[in-house]
Amino acid sequence: MYEDPVKEMLLWMKVLLLTAFILLGVRQFLFEPVIVEGGSMQPSYHENDKLVLSKATQIDNFDTIVFRAPDGNRFIKRVIGVPGDRIEMSGGEIVLNGQVLHEPYLDKAKNDGITGQPPMASEFSVPPDCYYVLGDNRGDSTDSRVLGFIQKQDVIGEVKFRFAPLRDFGFVE
């Protein structure tokens, strides 16, 4: 059947090894699957939602990111401020660069604006290479109000796709 079984086996080993290197490279530098833990991003994301992060992306206001917190845990939060943004938090409202934020992703029945935890300051600017992040479930979220600014190098990636549960399958907005 085969001319030389050893050559055939070596050829298949090369193919499998190359495939493994490509998959590891894609996971390391382009995409990574994650599972949501906790309820700090409800109603947008729930416990055990399965997501795909893009590691090669530009982070903008209102993107959802996963990052490493100072204690080593991974958190998923929404970016409210990017470098240079001016944020004012008062009376349950967030003012971003002079405009009151309209936040349709919040569950208004559960959230009392920013009053769930004390703000870091009433008015501040986001420093270079940092982000200001908040959970969508503001009353139950460890976010920049507690952690401070998130360093750019601590960002693992931006949420781009949800593959479970199946009722929410698809690209995220």
TrEMBL record:
GO terms for cellular component: plasma membrane. The active site is at 40, 77. It is found in: Cell membrane; Membrane. GO terms for molecular function: serine-type endopeptidase activity; signal peptidase activity. Its EC number is 3.4.21.89. GO terms for biological process: signal peptide processing. Its main location: membrane. Residues 12-163 form the Peptidase S26 domain. Belongs to the peptidase S26 family. This is Signal peptidase I. It comes from Planococcus maitriensis. The lineage of its organism: Bacteria, Bacillati, Bacillota, Bacilli, Bacillales.
